Amino acid sequence: MAEYNEDAYKLARKAYIEHSCPFERALLSRCVGCDRSHKLNLAEREAIACSDPAAREDCLSFYQALHENAQFALKITPDSPWPFGKEIRAQCGGVRGLAAALGAAGDATTDVAAAVQQAKARFGSCAEFPYSEIMRAVVHYEPRKRRS
After folding, report:
1. Structurally, how many domains does the chain consist of?
2. What angle in degrees, to the nearest 10, is found between the helix axes of 84-101 and 112-123?
3. Strand-pair partners of 49
4. Do 21 and 48 meet the contact criterion of CB atoms below 8 Å apart?
5. pLDDT tens per residue across span 16-48
């Protein structure tokens, strides 16, 4: 079996996807959704791209603030890479927690970009979001268990 050339994949991905989604892992795991995303197949892998550059910038700001706030809650040192499980907890729990803070269901039907836009309209900038509530959802989010 031939080995994958990861560097070639990353270059192809960068050339093919103009606006990547910061919440790609959450969308691929189907714990949340987004009307502005579209799924692509690239080198036998799935990827998520964003069709709205302005919404992507807002989502990216929330993603960065979410990671900054979740470091303590998930016991991650600032310079260390994020393990997959903790990344999923931050993304899925963060988006669902934001939706819950807005009074929505905070489940798999949550639209990432819509929640971020509603939160910006309600709270102002991403720095003003209710991270104490959001972090509770991050800590309590349980990713799907692996099939045995």
Report:
1. 1
2. 50
3. 20, 38
4. yes
5. 678 889 999 999 899 999 999 888 877 777 888
User: What's the predicted TM-score (pTM) here?
Assistant: 0.85
In a domain, 3, yes or no: no
Cite the DSSP H helix spans in 17-111.
Answer: 24-28, 53-73, 84-101
Do 115 and 71 contact (CB within 8 A), yes or no? no
Phi, psi of 46 (to 5 degrees): -100, 140
DSSP 51: S
Q: What is the pLDDT of residues 91-146, one digit of tens each?
A: 999 999 999 999 988 888 899 999 999 999 999 899 999 999 999 999 998 887 76
The owner of tokens 């790609």 is: 24
- The answer to whether residue 41 sits within a structural domain is yes
Does 121 fall in a domain?
yes
